Amino acid sequence: MKLPPEGARWLVDLRWWAAGAVFAATFVSSWLGALPHPGPCYAVGSAMLLYNVFFYFTQREVASGNVERRILAQVILDLAALTLLLYFSDLPRNPFLFYFVFHMIIAGMYLRGSFPYLIAAATTVLIGAIMAGLYSGWLPRFALHFPSDAGEPGRPDGLQLLGLFLAFASAAWITVYFTTSIRRYVDRAHAEIRQKEKMLGIGQLVAGIAHQIANPLDGVQNCLQRVGERVKDDPHLTEYVQLMAEALDRIERTAKRVQAFARPHGISLAPTDVNQAVEATLEVLGGAHGPRIKVRKELGEVPPVQGDPYTLQEVLFNLCTNAFHAMPQGGTLTLRTYALGSKDEDQMGSVAIDVSDTGVGIPRVNLERIFEPFFTTRAESGGTGLGLGLCRMLISEMGGRIEVRSALGQGTTFTVVLNPVAASAESPPRN
Predict the structure, then answer these.
(1) CA-based, 20 to 30 A from 29: which of 76, 223, 285, 413?
(2) CB 424 within 8 A of CB 306
(3) Has residue 119 been placed in a domain?
(4) Do 240 and 286 sit in the same domain of this protein?
(5) pTM for the full model?
C-alpha cells in the first residue's frame, strides 16, 4: 500500500503546534524558576520552526513515491530536536522523555523495511550515550529546579539512570515492533481487499459474456436434438450426436457457473470419485502434451469426496495444461491421489490430488501472486492469468483448498485437497 502525499503534510501541520508548545512550556518553566537556562530551548524551538517552514513550502512538490523519504527526514529532524530539548532541560528527570514513543509509532507506520528498527536503535544509543555522559560528568548538566529540591542537584544516581534507560529502550522497541506488525497486517488486509475487488470486476465481466453464450447455446442444443432423432437408426452417428450433446451440456454448466461468478452462492455437491476424475481428465488431454512429455498416474485407494466431477475435471485440466507449458523441453507429469489421514490438520481423512511436473519451476517471489487475477508469466503466449484464480475459487466452493510448492529447475507440485463424503455430510450443504 503506497502512502499518499497527505502522510507528510499532517506532520507539518502538527509541528506548528509542537513548536508553539515548546515555546509555551519553556516560557512557563522559566517564569516558575524550574528552567534556569531557557535560551537553548528557545533556540531548538526556533530551529523547529525554520525547518518546518521549509517542509511547508515544499510539501506541494512531494510525489507519492517520495513520501517515505520525506517522512524519514522529518522523523530524524524531530528526534534530534526532541533529544536537544530534553538534554537542555535535565533529561534524566524530564517527564517528557517518553515522547520518543510517538516518533517510534510514526516510523513504524510510515517507514518500510528495517528503517523503523534503525530509528529505534539510533534513539536508544543516543539516549544511552547522553545518560552515560551525564553520569560520568563528560557532559554538562542543565538541571531543573523543583520546589522540593534541597539544593543544587548533583550527579544523577547510576542505578536510577540504568532503570530509566532500560524502561525507555524497552518501550521504544516494543512500540516499533507492535506498530510494524500492525502495519504488515493492514498491508495484507489491503491486498486481500484489492484482490476481492478484482475478482468482483472479473465476475461482472465474464457473467455478461456467459449470458451471450447461453442464448445461442440453447438453440444449438435444440437443433442437435432434432438431428439426433433423424439419425437414430445409425449407431455411429447416434454416438457422435451423444458426444456432442455431452460436450454442449458441459459448456452450459460452465456458462451457468460463470454467470454465478459475479454473485457466488455455492455449488451443488455430490459424492465424487477423484480417481475417476483423474482418468477422465487424462482421456480429454489425449496426446496434446506431445511426445517429449511422459504422463504418469499413481492412483491410491481413496474414499469419495464431496465435490462436482465436472468442476474437478476442469481444475485438473487447467493444472495439467499449465504443467505442459512449464516443460518446454520435455519432462514428466505425474498425477497422484492419496488419503492424507491424520496428516491434515484442517480436516481428518481428507483426500489429496497432486499434479506434479519436472519443469522450470516458479520463482519464490511469484509464488504468492500466482493466484491473483491477471497475473501471468505467459502473456506473450496468450496467458490471461485467470486460470489459477478460477481454480482456487472452484475448489474453495467445494470446501477444499489448493496448495503449491516449487523449486526452480526442479518442478512444481499443485495439491488439491478435498473433504471426504462422511465428514462433509455431518454439516449442512452450503447454498
Answers:
(1) 76
(2) yes
(3) yes
(4) no
(5) 0.51
